[in-house]
Design brief:
Length: 249
């Protein structure tokens, strides 16, 4: 028979283990709650977007291959970009990983416009975006910042640019897509992604900005990269592809 002392020692161990078990269960239920932020509530907020070309759009069009923005979720999974949640009054650190490439002869609010506004970086900290990768390709000499022009790209810092140029040789803006945020129809942020002329595509763009009004914004790409309607149908007109809302809370 157990002594009284041993008995109470066992009871104590059972209670402690039970408590740990409860703690683990509680912790687990917390960790399955929706993650709305990848950083603390006061520090910079990180948003990573991926542009994937050639996504299957639908069977009703000959242009099946449509480009789309995706949000990279907290565990690395790709999520819809139809509705992007961003905090107000906090530094947003945006990284766009663009697997697409190619210049565009048209840029702006319709399929025939050629509006250089959308080739400019607007609304970011310092008025610049930082380009990584894709920068060793030949581009218009008006943007002298690539290896063929003997300009040094500082590793780890990217290449700060305030606009992307027109490329005479390729006959288009060196912009593959834009991530443009509008509030009441006005451009708040415009971040063009770099086209380069790398046939395999790919460039990474980093930019920082603040959104200081809570409420619903619109995001839209301004390179007519969809099908039909001079490029403004398909992906360009479908939430979660080349347009969507930004909810600032
Ligand atoms: Cu686009």
């Amino acid at each position: 028979m157990l002594s009284e002392k041993t008995f109470y020692a066992i009871i104590t161990v059972v209670i402690i283990l039970g408590g740990i078990g409860l703690g683990v269960a509680y912790e687990k239920s917390l960790s399955t709650a929706p993650v709305t932020s990848t950083t603390s509530s006061t520090g910079p907020y990180s948003l990573t977007l991926v542009i994937s070309p050639n996504n299957w759009f639908n069977n009703a069009t000959i242009h099946h291959r449509q480009p789309a923005y995706f949000v990279v979720g907290p565990n690395g999974q790709l999520e819809s970009s139809a509705k992007i949640m961003l905090p107000a009054h906090r530094l947003i650190q945006l990284t766009i990983i663009d697997y697409d490439s190619g210049v565009t002869p048209n840029i702006g609010p319709n399929g025939t416009s050629n509006n250089s506004t959308y080739a400019h970086v607007i609304g970011t900290v310092g008025g610049v975006e930082y380009l990584y990768n894709g920068t060793s390709q030949f581009i218009n000499a008006t943007l002298s910042g690539n290896a063929s022009d003997n300009i040094t790209i500082i590793k780890g810092e990217g290449w700060a640019i305030s606009q992307l140029p027109w490329n005479n040789t390729l006959g288009g803006w060196e912009v593959t897509h834009t991530f443009t945020i509008l509030y009441n129809g006005q451009i708040v942020v415009n971040i063009p992604t770099f086209a380069g002329n790398n046939p395999s595509g790919g460039a990474v763009t980093f930019a920082q900005f603040y959104l200081n009004n809570t409420g619903n914004y619109v995001w839209q790409c301004y390179v007519p990269c969809g099908d039909e309607l001079n490029g403004w149908g398909g992906a360009m007109a479908t939430a979660g592809w080349m347009t969507g809302v930004v909810v600032v809370y």
